[in-house]
Design a protein that fits this description.
Radius of gyration of chain B: 19 Å
Order of helices and strands of chain A: EEHEEEHHHH
Largest sheet of chain B: 5 strands, antiparallel
CATH architecture of the largest domain in chain A: Orthogonal Bundle
CATH topology of the largest domain in chain B: Enolase-like, domain 1
Number of helices of chain B: 11
Structural class of chain B: alpha+beta
Number of domains of chain A: 2
CATH class of the largest domain in chain B: Alpha Beta
Oligomer: heterodimer
Shape of chain A: globular
Radius of gyration of chain A: 16 Å
Strand content of chain A: 5-15%
Helix content of chain A: 25-40%
CATH class of the largest domain in chain A: Mainly Alpha
Number of strands of chain A: 5
CATH superfamily of the largest domain in chain A: [2Fe-2S]-binding domain
Helix content of chain B: 25-40%
Largest sheet of chain A: 5 strands, mixed
Order of helices and strands of chain B: EHEHEEEHHHHHHEEEEEEEEHHH
Number of helices of chain A: 5
Chain lengths: ~160, ~325
Amino acid sequence: MRVAVTVNGTEYARDVEPRLLLIHFLRDELGLTGSHWGCDTSNCGSCVVWLDATPVKSCTVLAAMADGRSVRTVEGLEQDGRLDPVQEGFIECHGLQCGFCTPGMMMTARWLLDHNPDPAEAEIREVISGQICRCTGYENIVRSIRWAAKHSQPDDAEAAE
Amino acid sequence: MHYMQVPSQVEYERATSVEHALSLLNRPDTRVVAGGHSLIPMMKLRLAQPEMLVDINGLAELAYIRLDGGQLRIGALARHADLLNSAVAGEHFPIFHDAERVVADPIVRLWGTIGGSLCQADPSEDLSAAFAAARATVVIRGQDGDRMVPVREFHLGPYETVIDRGELLAEVRVPVQSGTGSAYEKVARRVGDWSVAAAGAVLRVGEGGNHEPVITSAGLGLTAVGAEHFVAAEAEEFLVGGPADEDSFAAAGAIAAEHCRPVADQRGPEDYKRHLVAELTARALRRAAARAAAPNSGPNSGPNSGPNSGGART
């Protein structure tokens, strides 16, 4: 079947099997390998992308279900050469080691901050509770997201540089 | 790439209206897909091999939660996160907020649907027991119209419901009654996991013959422990007409533990599960009674204030 999906603002049309999973569509059909294919059972969260405005585990969504919709992946966080504060936070606070969970963590973090610009630590831990990191013990991921929250406020725009 | 889990070949159709969905569902071996977070993993494992999927995610007319005619009405396409964030649901049935807080994880809850959970009919699924405790009714839509089925008659067994070919679950209706309190208590091995066991209680407390408060109605649901239709019927019967006190709650817990039929699995042995049923039933009753006495002021009045909301266990 023919699917047309707008990914990070660019429309892509491809002929795919209806059983193709969204994560493989992104990685293998479009070459967007920023989103990671991890557990394949919707437990680990490394494949989280946005489907329209909602984060989803893309190993458990069919590419066909994204037909006519928008997808935002980790490649779409940076805008006009400027990193998202979430990406800066992960750099500043050492929010990754091996980096496997990072794209999913950052997509969920961006969504959280869009809905809750100043989340408490417990709220951050709750929202990433369906995503697994085997390196950081989560501590630095939480710090990274807190850093991004602090540096996303309009008044702090310069501090984010 | 050799170890990739891929569903078997399947056709895909996107329903453009409920009528369109119903006509597509008349074909054999056709399954509805909404959130897909149970069905797609089962398809990867070949536990499900439908010939065709009917995607109902575009049917906005099935995505709502509202109070109407003394009933809480939940459209089948409402997402778990919608129920968790619904103020009207939380006001009348805190049991649904308790349960939703421990269904899967926040990302899955954004996409998984209420109707999908019920239709999946997994014996460990949390909402079946919660809706059974609340004596909900489901609305099943077919080409000849709607039929109402009490949720206590909806499940025929594991992964099996009364929904026939050509039918679609449209709505869940829960009767709202004043003086009611409710709660759901779950034990899982880790955040986001299925229940080892869980219990839901819906209690109504009124005035008895000698002006003492007595339980006038009781609904008890049990998750993952082999309770028929997810209900602890004997314990319900015991509670009605008695006092809403600790002795009653403990006795009801013991009755529920005696009559359920848990099986030993990787989540625990049978005796441990019975122990959990007794304890969690008593806890759910205690919390439901407190909420009946002081509506909207108990613990967990807000969607993210619960003891299971987070923090240290990520």
